[in-house]
Amino acid sequence: MYIAMNRFKIRLGSEQEFIDIWKNRDTYLDTVPGFQSFNLLQGASNDEYTLFASHSVWDSRQAFENWTQSEAFRKAHANARGNKDIYLGAPNFEGFESCL
C-alpha cells in the first residue's frame, strides 16, 4: 500500500471555496488502476492559514506514479492553477509506503 498526501495552506476565509473546488472537480481517480480511496482532510487554523491535506491510498507506489504520468492526471489537474489567491504557497507532497 502507498499513501500520497499533499498539504495545502489555505488563506483564512477561503476554506469553503477550497472544499468546493475539490467537491466539484472530476478527479478521474476511479478510472485509474491501483487507486483505492481519496479523502480531503481539514486541519487546524492559525493566524495565517488553515491546513488541508489530500489523502489518496494506492495499491503500490508504482500505481501512484503511473497515475501521475497518465492522461487522467493531466485532465484532473488541467485547471489546478486557477484560484491561486486562496493558496499560501505551493502544496507540500508527502508519500508513504506501508511497512507493516
TrEMBL record:
Taxonomy, superkingdom: Bacteria
InterPro entries: ABM_dom, Dimeric_a/b-barrel, Heme-degrading_MO
Pfam assignment, any one: ABM
ABM domain residues: 2-96
Gene3D superfamilies reported in the protein's UniProt record: 3.30.70.100
Protein name: ABM domain-containing protein
